[in-house]
Amino acid sequence: PWTVAPIRFGSWIGGDRDGNPNVTAAITRRAVCLSRAFACTLYRREVDALAEDLSIAVAGEALRARVPDAREPYRAVLNDLSARLDAARTHWLDGYHSEEGRVESDVSVLGLEDLRDVFLCVRASLQETGAEALADGRVLDLLRRTTVFGLVLARLDLRQDSGIHTEIADRLTQGGYAVLD
User: Which of 17, 44, 48, 67 is 20 to 30 A away from residue 172, measured at CA?
Assistant: First the structure.
């Protein structure tokens, strides 16, 4: 099933603060922004290729409801997703280039569930109209990618110097942690 991820990727690049004074909170934020921007680029490339393949006029009810007047409903839905991926990419690149990698909160930025929702709608429509081979090809592959990579490509492993952990735990316990060390 597309919901199963037999493997997940992780990275410590940008998150290795254990003894590396060059990896700061700003570097970690920038690493996250860059990973998300690159994920949007890769998904957009695949969505654009899928839109090229799906010049089909016949669509299921749910997909047709999204773009009622479109002559090529799959392309219309996928082109909209492509534009949203591009906007999300720009958002994450802005965060990468901003001072200290700050990212403004924006609820309109494309999320993983938004991405999956479009892929699931396209797949269901293809199945509903008898195009199972198309539904189980590139669309299913994209759904599997959302499970393995999400919208970040690789989860970021954060490592911190144990002295920092001790300091924080000591503050939380009002001086009771460091004496246990």
Answer: 17
**CA 39 – CA 92 distance, rounded (Å):** 10
Contact 63, 77 (CB under 8 A): yes
**What global pTM score does this model have?**
0.85
Smallest Cα–Cα separation from 158: which of 39, 25, 6? 25
Q: Which of 66-70, 75-79, 111-115, 160-164 has the lowest mean pLDDT?
A: 160-164
Using CA atoms, how far residue 101 sits from 26, 43, 92, 98, 160, in Å, is 5, 23, 9, 5, 19
pLDDT digits (tens, 9 = 90+) for 27-84: 888 999 999 999 999 999 999 999 999 999 999 999 999 999 999 999 999 999 999 9
State whether the Cα torsion 165-167-172-173 is positive or negative: positive
Rounded Cα distance between 85 and 159, Å, is 30
Are 17 and 23 contacting, i.e. CB atoms less than 8 angstroms apart? yes
Distance CA 94, CA 83 (A): 16
CB 63 within 8 A of CB 73: yes
